[in-house]
Each structure stands twice: as C-alpha cells, then as structure tokens.
Fold:
Amino acid sequence: MTAERAILTTSRLTMRFGGVVAVDQVDFTLKTGELRCLIGPNGAGKSTFFKCLTGQLKPTAGSILFADRELSGKNTHDIVRQGIGIKTQVPNLFDGLPARENIALSARQRHSQKRSEEITDEMLELIRITALAHREVGSLAHGERQLIELAMVLAGQPRLVLLDEPAAGMTAEERGRLASALRDLAGRMSLIVVEHDMQFIKDIATEITVFHRGRVFIEGDVAEIMAHHEVQEIYLGKEADGAA
Structure:
C-alpha cells in the first residue's frame, strides 16, 4: 500500500438547491490509509458533501473519483459495490436476529460461509462487542446498535469507509470502543468521519478538514486545527473551550 496515493478526490464538487449553494466547488483529497475528520457548524456543507460522496444526492457539478473511477451521479448501491462502506446516523439492522447473524449476513455477500464466519469473529473482536454476539439486536441500546452496524459495514471489507456522526447517542464507554476500533483501522483502510463531538475527534483524528459556507475553510493536523483562533471562534464556538 502506498500511503501517499490518493484513493478519493473531488474536483470542483458543487451541490445547489435552487439558489442555495450548499457545496461550492470543493476540491478534496484523501490518501490511501488515511483517517480524515470533517467538521464545521450546522449548514457548513459537510453533511451535503457526505451525501454527495455516498450517492444520497447527485451533485450539480464536479467530479468524484474513487480509485480513479468516477462516482458522481452513481446511486448508493453502485458506490458500495465499488468497495466503499457507508455508516449513516440511523442503524439499519435486522432487529429479529442476533448481532452475530447480522454481521455474518453482511460478510456472506462477498465471501464463502467459512470465511464469513472468520470475518464475523474478527469484527466482533475488533469492535469489542463479542459479549453482544448472541443478543437480539432489537433489544439493544442505540449505541450498541451503532457498533453492530459498523461491524456489518466492515464485514464487507471495504477499501474506504464513510461514517456520519458515528458517536452520536453513545455512552462514554461505547465511544471509547468506537475510537479504539477506528484507530486500529486507520492504515488498513481509508476513513472519512463527519462528527460534532470534539473530544471524540481529538481521540481519533490526525488530519481534519473544516467546512464553512459550502467550502473547505482549512485543513491540517488535529493540533493545528484545534489551536486555530478562527476555527475556535467561528466553527466550534463554546465547544472549543470544553475541548481545549
């Protein structure tokens, strides 16, 4: 794996809703094996950008290249088939089945029965949810369900994983498990995390992209971004004081 090779790039990516430009000619590059956090206040454009990457929205203009293949305009199913895992805010699970079977079903879409069982065990251990393996997911708490869906996404062994506020609604202990898993995954695959929880970002991030008014305002390492005066005052507000 070549760490400096770009796995995902956008060029002049634009999303308009009538007269409102939600994403304004964004140029963005993610290196292979990199974990990047996207932050910014509500209305900054980061969620719309995420939806363009995942096929939930068709960009008005611009290009999205994943491993040199154009993704702009493709639907979510096609994007997943290209090797991108998508973790949205609302878990999409089979409530009547145990956690283990949910994960195994995902693994079986691409692998043999034997290999699927091995992958399932690996994911349960990686996310530290082995104790939930035989629990029916419909009876689990929101944070536990989030962890199980992440395991399902990872069971497909994607090259890139896109996560939209994965720590939302989690307990401190669950956030810790999630942060540990994401740190372990960085380098083995590429990850983009859209998140509001600044302490969680500090726990996982090396590089951060800050969105503002539909554009990339600044990019840099986590220490640089957290110390940036305008980022603190304009984008993080009172949260910055608590995260310092």
Observations:
- Residues 90-151 form one domain.
- The CA atoms of residues 172 and 200 lie 10 Å apart.
- The chain has two domains: 6-83+158-243, 90-151.
- The longest helix spans residues 113-126.
